[in-house]
Specification:
mainly alpha, about 290 residues, transmembrane, membrane, MetI-like fold, transmembrane helix, transport, flat, 14 helices
Length: about 290
Amino acid sequence: MAKTLSTENEKAIVRQRIGHALMIAFLAVLLVVFIWPFFLVLTNAFKNMSDITGEPLSLIGSHGFTIENFTKAMRKMHFWRVFGNSAIITTFSTILTILFSAMAAYVIVRNPKWTASKLTFSAMVASMVIPFQVIMVPLVAVYGGTLGLLNSRTTLIFMHVGFSVSLAVFMFHGAIKTNVPVELEEAAEIDGASKWRTFWTIVFPLLKPTAATVAIIDAMAFWNDYLLPSLVLTDKKIYTIPIATQVFYGTYSTDIGLVMAALLLAMLPILVMYLLLQRFIVAGVTAGAVKG
């Protein structure tokens, strides 16, 4: 009997190890699939046009390593100007989204019986399922044709905030509900702190993981967004990086080397931000999880 149990345990361990090995192999293949486009951009950004078309998969082309693509790309797309535009729009959009969403979520969580809280939160959740493509034509028609508010960084910032605040409120709502005890606020109220001071000195610091997660998600979305800025911005002086890269695409030919260099320049800032804040992602995502 003992020998039978031992044999069954050994078989279970073998099956577990095989399953673990298969999972590792599957994840490795998935990693290669996701990393492959970035690998191609990274390697081909340092090649000339003939090497890119003739040897796209080689690490270094037959003509050697070159950084000429970067200097040409930066000059042609006016990199520092469009970089500044992207930085301004992304920074202000992200900060405003975090501030407005955290405050709105706090009011909703602490006043669950209010009809306004229920309706607002329901509207926030429902709006997340509406594709942007459904409303982009009326958006441009109203803000451009009727109000004449397009072609402005300020307009784009408030549009970014409007489209991203629903998900942020949903995340802050869960974080406040499960991770911020009401007793802390009651203690602050006994000490004479106002609701405003209580939120900024006690509640908001506890939301740092969620705020960092929202910052990463939204900053990446704002920085890489092409569709909305292309509809709002028409003046080349206020172009963002994704829109500025279109100067490399000609009617009859495209310099792939310049495109690769521009794409690499565009992804580096947001990649650095991700690496600096990545430790907050898991904590921020799980902050709104329901505790058992």
